[in-house]
Amino acid sequence: MDRVKKAVSTHHPSHQPRSFLSDIYVCGGILALCHASIAVQAVDASPPRVTFDVNPLIACRDVTPTEFAEANPDERLVQADVQVSSLIRNGGEDDLIQYFYRVESPEETIQIVDYSPKTTLTSDISGNVTIEKKKERTNHMGLALSGPFDWPVRATGSGDLGTKSHDIVRYELLPQKFAVASSGTICRGYGVYFKLKPSRSTTLEGSKQLTLVFRVPKEWRGDYVHLSCTAIGLHRGVVRPFDEHTGCGHHRFVVALYADGDTSAKAAAERLARAEMDLLKTVSANRRAIEKRAYPTLAHKIGVMLDVIEPPIPDDWAQRLIYATGETGIAKITRRLPSRVREAADEYAVAKRELFRLGVPEAPEVQ
Fold it and tell me: Which helix (DSSP H) or strand (DSSP E) does residue 58 occupy?
């Protein structure tokens, strides 16, 4: 009876709810930590963001060798050193895979005959790799003799014969290498590409020099090229198999070229660079007015959304104007722009045309 009373007295029903609530608190804390961990992983998994920059105009110096001048009296070679800068604004370089640079002559007026950096291989291992293979052979033979009777005398005998040999082969191999830079021509020699990758001894961020040698007419004074810069990186998944390649930054530039020492050609290149900057600023300041002319009524907006009609002013009209080649019908679009924007667009078109003419030799007069 005393034992029963003691058992009853030691049992407190109020303890059970406390234990249940504590379990709920623990589970809730674990879920909160898991949620926070997943959120942190999601933030950390965002790919890096890269921006690029380049000088808008570059002087080209004459590098024509005597042999080339004798073989090609109507042509010469000029060299441009293009400094391309990159800045990693978000993320780390560990998640960057490569930079891809592409330089083209849009009108195919200047041909690229040489370039740098060339394709370069490197290795994380210094020196050669030594390989050593060992092989051991063992031969063993045993012999035992015993008489069939134990009485009066038992005769036994045994013997062992063994040999052991070692073969060691040692040789050296070159370490495995991977490309940190690869490059080559495109567009039948009117363009060139560069792929740059990080390594233990090199970095992608910062300024890189691209050296280009152009084949131009002897009287060449100026022209322009298009430069495209793209960063490729990793978008980290929850686990490594879910990692994906993604774009981490892209930019296009118009780079004005002029003959070193030619002041009037330099002025033409500066005019193009200034006209592009003024055009972009004017477009940004008049964005609402441009949008109103592109979508004058609600019906126009609905028609564009349903792909029933095309907007009179496309959203990418400025990029079309800046990177247009030849007659692309851009004049029909610029006529619909606000007057201030149209003036800036016309100034840019004239500046680009004037610089382009400095690179095209004048046709001889027909007598």
Answer: strand 57-62
pLDDT at 27: 54
Contact (CB, 8 A) for 326 and 353? no
Please tell me the distance from the alpha carbon of residue 279 to that of residue 227, in angstroms, as a whole number: 19
Q: How many other C-beta atoms can be found within 10 angstroms of the C-beta atom of residue 178?
A: 10
| One domain for residues 191 and 270 | no
**Residue among 310, 349, 358, 342 at smallest CA distance from 326:** 349
- Asked whether residue 117 is assigned to any structural domain, the reply reads yes
Domain boundary, last residue among 204, 238, 260: 260
Distance CA(205)–CA(48), nearest Å, equals 12
Tokens representing 300 are 């126009």
From the centroid of its chain, how far is CA 309? 36
DSSP 116-151: ES--EEE-SS-SPEEEEEEEEEEEEEEEEEE-S--S
Residue 351 domain flag: yes
Which domain does 211 fall in, by range?
Answer: 43-123+179-260
**Which residues partner with 134 through β-bridges?**
168
Q: Measure CA 297 to chain center.
A: 42
Position 183 in a domain: yes
Q: Say if residues 255 and 224 touch (Cβ distance below 8 Å).
A: yes
Cβ-Cβ contacts under 8 Å for 202 (sequence gap 6 or more): 122, 180
In CATH, what number is assigned to the domain containing residue 63? 2.60.40.680
Domain assignment present for residue 171? The answer is no
Amino acid (one-letter) located at 259: A
Domain termination site, one of 195, 227, 260: 260
The parts of the chain modelled with pLDDT lower than 50 are: 1, 3-17, 36-43, 363-367
Could you say which DSSP state residue 93 is in?
A: G
- Number of domains composing the chain: 2
Beta carbons within 8 Å of 238's beta carbon, 6+ residues apart:
41, 45
Q: Convert the pLDDT of each residue in 145-169 to its tens digit.
A: 555 555 555 555 555 556 666 677 6
